[in-house]
UniProtKB/TrEMBL annotation:
This is Cholesteryl ester transfer protein. One of its GO terms (cellular component) is high-density lipoprotein particle. It is found in: Secreted. The lineage of its organism: Eukaryota, Metazoa, Chordata, Craniata, Vertebrata. It catalyses: 1,2,3-tri-(9Z-octadecenoyl)-glycerol(in) = 1,2,3-tri-(9Z-octadecenoyl)-glycerol(out); cholesteryl (9Z-octadecenoate)(in) = cholesteryl (9Z-octadecenoate)(out); cholesteryl (9Z,12Z)-octadecadienoate(in) = cholesteryl (9Z,12Z)-octadecadienoate(out). The keyword Disulfide bond applies.
Amino acid sequence: MPRDVFPPLLLLLFLSVFGASHACLLDPASAYRFTGAVCRLTYPAAVVLNEKTTKVIEAAFQHARYPSVKGEKSLLFIGTVIYGLDNLEIHNLSIGRSAFELHPGEGIALEIGNVSAVFRGTIQYGYGNWLVNIAHSIDFEIESQIDLGINPKLYCRDGKVAADTSDCYLHFHKLHLHLQGDKEPNWLRKVFTDFITFTVKLAIKGQICKEINKVANILADFIQDTAGQFLSYGGISVDIGVTAAPVINANYIESYHKGLTNYNNASAVINDSVFHPRQLTENRMLYFWISDQVLNPMFTAAHQDSRLQLNISGAELTELFKTNLSSAMPAFIRECLLESASPQLRVWSSSVPHLNTSISGTTVWGTASGELDCGTQGTPVLFFKTDVAIDITASYADKKLSLQGHPSEVFVLQAELSSQNQTVQLLDEDHEEFIREAVEKIGIPKVLSALEIELTRLLDKQGANLFDIVNPEVLPQDGFVLIQMDFGFPHHLLTQFLMKTLQ
Ligand SMILES: *[C@@H]1O[C@H](CO)[C@@H](O)[C@H](O)[C@H]1NC(C)=O
Ligand SMILES: *[C@@H]1O[C@H](CO)[C@@H](O)[C@H](O)[C@H]1NC(C)=O
Ligand SMILES: *[C@@H]1O[C@H](CO)[C@@H](O)[C@H](O)[C@H]1NC(C)=O
Ligand SMILES: *[C@@H]1O[C@H](CO)[C@@H](O)[C@H](O)[C@H]1NC(C)=O
Ligand SMILES: *[C@@H]1O[C@H](CO)[C@@H](O)[C@H](O)[C@H]1NC(C)=O
Ligand SMILES: *[C@@H]1O[C@H](CO)[C@@H](O)[C@H](O)[C@H]1NC(C)=O
Ligand SMILES: *[C@@H]1O[C@H](CO)[C@@H](O)[C@H](O)[C@H]1NC(C)=O
Ligand SMILES: *[C@@H]1O[C@H](CO)[C@@H](O)[C@H](O)[C@H]1NC(C)=O
């Protein structure tokens, strides 16, 4: 008995979450050190996905275009009967059950049992000898019950995960022909029954298997294109091509991706990745393994592309500074916030940030600069520059990404006031202490909350909010982050795909 149920087509959806490009390497073990990101989908996830298999199979049946078929047969006394089968349509399709097995090292075996369907069409026929020539047309209906088996092989094509579904077979349990009306002679009925039983089997088998292959490719492209768009941000893009063919064992399917950031014609290099499959377990449905070597170049590019900056002004700024600090607020800042018409605080990253993940979290080091401009003629502009180190952990709940940040170091490198008349005045220790405390207690939480919003927005753009994600965990480890979750398959996502691509 098959262990349960599976859809190679929908599986692609997950394998391709990390998209496309270039050629595949080697066998997985030697490709590990070039692997920046990994996606593991386990057996329980496949069970959930399989529940949707029938929808894809239904679409494959409904959208198959059945070709017209022609044939001829010589009969004693009657002569040659010429016949053609046209306008084959499918009605009342229903699918009994579907089941799958993961075959280690080979692929997936998928069985769709008890597909019942009614095919309708028209038979044209003509017969006769040199004396008589008669041409007729008759409508027919075929009741059928079919088992469908597919053994898709996952492989790596042009750097993408692709499915070869050419190992596809149909087994007919039942094939009953009904001719409309009863005026046809019995011998003719016999001829058509044999003929149609044979030809219809061939025609349907060929078309259904072809359509399944097509749907698999459309789905793969659809997903990989979407993923590609998600992973480019301005001039920054990430090469998520695979480094090796996916691995299938009895408990999971795993795909290996490069995760190389491209920016300004420069590409990151990963050639000493710490990835090993034993870093992932098998009890959750879906795992993403992401290396610091993927995240660091992304941050570097974001910094170089001036993405790491934030402007706060007006009431929002005044509100922020209501936070209780233990050091006294310098008079010029109070005046700036309370008395000027349009105070503006600009903060930006002023050196390439660097991150390092360990069991306790991800530590980010960087230099943050800020400028407080009161927007009023004659008032001085405050400039400061600080070194910061923040320990960050992430979580995802209620469709929102949250970052919990704990500053481990804030050090003021520079703090000065510059006036209209070009003079620059360095701040004293008390003022520096206020700035240090403000950066720690106001600045860092504000920046993290802005980052949370931006990252949630990026995830939503990819459709993360459409998924029914259950108990996701973000686990920092030595040199990488492991994201693991269970999920319910979003039916509307499938519907949307089918409507968009198969209409
Ligand atoms: C499809 O099913 C409906 C309801 O069961 C039935 O009325 C209809 O005749 C069926 N159509 C065909 C083509 O068998
Ligand atoms: C197939 O469907 C028919 C009728 O819908 C049912 O009687 C039969 O038990 C089913 N067979 C299997 C193997 O599911
Ligand atoms: C990237 O390289 C191309 C061709 O070498 C050049 O035309 C283009 O200006 C470069 N782009 C950047 C952002 O450096
Ligand atoms: C890894 O890549 C870097 C940068 O291209 C190179 O200097 C280094 O030799 C490479 N290491 C290995 C083991 O290939
Ligand atoms: C912040 O303000 C500065 C100058 O007022 C402007 O050049 C910059 O583009 C702004 N940045 C953002 C992210 O809005
Ligand atoms: C700030 O501190 C003052 C006195 O220490 C206290 O009265 C006030 O409630 C505090 N405000 C907030 C928002 O914590
Ligand atoms: C420059 O302006 C500041 C305050 O705006 C003032 O204290 C200082 O004396 C001025 N210096 C000169 C050289 O005018
Ligand atoms: C980075 O984290 C690793 C553990 O993953 C640790 O061994 C290493 O010392 C850390 N590096 C720095 C600079 O903190």
